[in-house]
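=== RUN LOG ===
request id: a7f3
mode: sequence -> structure
chains: 1
length: 225
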Amino acid sequence: MEHNWETVVNDLAQIKVTASFDNEPVLIEGAAKGFRCIGVGTDAAVFQSLAVPEYAYKVYAEGKLDKLEAEAEVYARIGSSAYFSYCYGAYDRLLVLKYEEGPTLFDCLLQGIHIPEQVIQDVEDARGYIREIGLNPRDIHLKNILLQNGRAKLIDVSEYIKPGNDFRWEHLKKTYDEYYPIIKGTPMPFWLLETIRKWYHHWNRYSSTFDGFMRIVSEQLNYRK
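=== RESULT ===
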């Protein structure tokens, strides 16, 4: 890859990314000429160069250097895989990634785009691959899975180096199996998805089991109709 790292850093120098509290998206201040923001997470924001659109630049928030280093290490171990993006390198506060097209599964629910069962199977296979190379698939949720031509592409692999199971994928898969057939093809309101996201972040405050939490969610949403 022929690219001037210093130029990229200088171009993005006017952008400040700050972490938020309680699992909320980062805050972005400033702008960089020739770049557009294509994604915002809880640790970083992702920008695409209009001049070189095949690359994406993941700029981490201040104080998140450990996340950057972890994600760079995970991508190096993954190498080239059909299930994941590719990392060209790390510099200062950013990663240079291959730009990946396609809506996230969160966007699919917003727009009523059908999510085929093949996507679920692809994520299962991707998780198996991650375990084979000695890593731990974690933090897999609606905003970390892209839909590409009916297949899944996973992004944001920074937590794959952590131990333990956060059960986010298991809960998402269970919700897909039990609830998605009822709503597939129907655009979902943004407020509804955001409310569920925020509740889920503290789901064990509401119930000792995920099934119990989902019953509470259903009851509350029916009450608000």
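=== NOTES ===
The two ends are 53 Å apart (CA to CA).
The first helix runs from residue 5 to 11.
=== END ===
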